[in-house]
Amino acid sequence: MSFDRDAVLRAAAELLARKATATQDEIAKAAGISRATLHRHFAGRDALIRALEELGLRQLEQVVTDARLDDGAAREALSRLIEGTRPVAGFIAFLSTENQLFEEGEMNEGWERIDARISALFRRGQESGEFRIDMSPIWFTEALYGLVAAAAWAIQAGRTAPRDYTPMILGLLLGGVERRDPTP
Amino acid sequence: MSFDRDAVLRAAAELLARKATATQDEIAKAAGISRATLHRHFAGRDALIRALEELGLRQLEQVVTDARLDDGAAREALSRLIEGTRPVAGFIAFLSTENQLFEEGEMNEGWERIDARISALFRRGQESGEFRIDMSPIWFTEALYGLVAAAAWAIQAGRTAPRDYTPMILGLLLGGVERRDPTP
DNA sequence: ACCGAATGAGACAGTAATGTCTCATTCGAG
DNA sequence: CTCGAATGAGACATTACTGTCTCATTCGGT
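Above: the input entities. Below: the structure tokens describing the complete assembly.
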């Protein structure tokens, strides 16, 4: 059984997202490996967190690219984006809540780049008249992260079915909770 | 200068919300007191977290009560609720992300009670025809927590003005990002 | 201004988690 | 099947944080 680095990091992200104080032992257990092996591949907690951040950002960046945010209607692009985040929702939940790394001044440029690309999508939607203009694209972006994390947590807690992930987030983010008049 | 228990807990919540691994020393520093004094009032980290949870839940419950969720239009009640959460946003951010306490089986009944009351508001809105019915009240509630946490974080990071707190959350949660036809 | 109470600063021991090592066992390529 | 590499389990030392204590200083009521 070869070592599945990404699977270990995914398990770690999901655990740390809801219990940031988990020990290396708990993380190893959650990943289904021994503490020794965990330490062989990630020399210490700092290295683990760093790898977590690195993989999370890389995957998210790939998701953003695959969603082709510049193509077609903004709401369609947003739909593709959210659907794409599903496999990395655990990473997003972890990364968006735990900014203990960034505050060391390095303020990860990768994270800023992703923010910029998603914000640009919302701005494009505003300029095309699809999205409302009384709130900033940055807030929309932050709100998206928040909803993704909330959805990931709700699913993990068994409160919601996994298949509802995308419609839940997309429906709420696009239309809000208010009922809309059926006037297409 | 007398000891302001609530202020200390508020500072602790805001710090722990974004860095759950903060040491007692860092918490004390963030609260503007010494580690010795922190320990005099909260005997150990567990006691601190417990007090944090207790005060947070109590305050949030008070906010929910003050918002009179059963009165008037559901959207107005939601508006009052969100405005009321502003002073306790740091607590909500901490409590909604860190469930390390609940998983010890006690699954705080106070938290469940608050969830139930807020969910009831959304359900009432659905039944009155104000809110859409294709998503569950529980999801609306979780989403509210997520948006509150996202807003609190955005403000703390200086990305958004504090005065925009309520309109940001309310606007997004009620109407979503899509532009609505001006047809009242 | 006084005095008791609370605080801050620091030293110190205890403890929990980490980093490191060893060794038997398992895995998997050839 | 064989052998080298990787893993799991555990022991051990180290580190970092916590819990506790002391004492000088400051605060605040009277």
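Note for the figure: Chain A has a mean pLDDT of 93.
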